[in-house]
Design goal:
Layout lengths: L3 E2 L4 E2 L2 E7 L10 H17 L3 E7 L3 E7 L6 H19 L3 H4 L6
Antiparallel strand pairs: 1-2, 3-5, 4-5
Helix pairs in contact: 1-2
Amino acid sequence: MVIHKTSHARYDLWYHIVWSTKYRKKVFKTPLTKQKVHTILRTIANHYDMEIGEVNCLSDHVHLSVSAPPRIAPARIVQILKSTSNKLLFKEFPWLRHLYWGGEI
């Protein structure tokens, strides 16, 4: 347990976030896609001053624990992670366009 510090606060906030794929399609079956999801989420979190504790990527949903400063609301954390990872996954795996023609995983 590490207590993080900002100029006005000390915190150790951890959120457990779970989201599923649209229509519960089993997109994350292969180890390559699971590993890429881990890498993408960790990259996004580092960019936004967040910390990813654990990521568990199952075939149709993702579990993760994330720590963020109090200035970032939990809803904003989810918004950042889902929207940015969605764009990067479509860029990395073009075959997703055939499953999700609307542009949302």
